Here is the input.
Amino acid sequence: MAVTGSFGFTGRALTERLLSAGHEVVTLTRRSGEGDPLAQRISVQPFDTTDPAALVASLAGVETLFNTYWLRFPRGTSTFEGAVARSATLVAAAREAGVRRVVHVSVVNASPAADTPYVRAKAALEVIVRSSGLEWVIVRPTLTYGPNDILINNLAWALRRLPVYGLPGLGRYTVTPVHVDDVARICVEAAAGPSGVVLDAAGHETMTYRELVDRVRTAVGSRSLIVPMPGIAVLAAARLLGLFVRDIVLTRDEIRELTSSLLTSHEPPRGEIRISEWLPANAAQLGRRWSSELDRNYSRLPTG
Ligand SMILES: NC(=O)c1ccc[n+]([C@@H]2O[C@H](COP(=O)([O-])OP(=O)(O)OC[C@H]3O[C@@H](n4cnc5c(N)ncnc54)[C@H](OP(=O)(O)O)[C@@H]3O)[C@@H](O)[C@H]2O)c1
Here is the structure.
């Protein structure tokens, strides 16, 4: 089995699940894996799309490719157009290497007509995956949480420390959060199920964003005042906080995606873990440290 980004968030959960099921895993990554115990258990190969022949060699003998590679936002030379092109090269290399199936991780409600470039680019990549000539399954997660996630952890971080938390609008838009282990399980099951399928990876509970914030606030014992604000004010506050934590906290597009209920699944839930139970059970660790997107994915690493 091959996984792009085994040292990442979803890729790690997926890799752990594949290893537990007795599979050998090769990961395609920018990272060396040095200092990460997972690196001892898998084969670490470069995800270098400027060298397609090396990609083909890395994928030789692989039955299924799980693709989690994506950018959260464009920055510097990393663009969504570039990410689509890199993914297209990857899929072509998989075909040449004789890989049977690609399980591609997309995003819920991916559509070429979506409001934001992230979601439109995801839709463009889905077209490439469908026409790859490989067996394919597209898994579309909703907002994904779990150990070391960014969004819920940093929401908890803010609620633990700030006297006021700015909610974009009234917070009546909905989310269907899914645990990363459920996403991993759904992907692994998709590898053995029918080909040519698009399915959401969504949790059991659909709730308003205000409810989600309230649940995290209660779980971590926060006394922050939750204040509805115009999206533009939340963006300004997020930028200010970003200067302090040296990160990009939230983008304008992410606010648009959130407030338009884009992160809501309309399919029957496939997730088994309930966020209403997970939050109190994991509250002790939640939000203790800031999880930095820039440190994880944009600093001192080759871009792509
Ligand atoms: N997290 C969510 O809430 C959520 C919701 C819906 C859909 N998804 C989708 O789920 C998939 C996995 O997301 P994730 O949250 O688990 O992401 P992630 O771990 O942050 O990123 C996935 C992989 O993409 C590569 N990557 C990330 N940023 C990059 C950059 N700036 N330049 C080059 N490579 C970069 C990394 O691979 P290496 O560093 O190993 O090379 C990383 O392991 C993505 O397709 C995402 O769109 C996520």
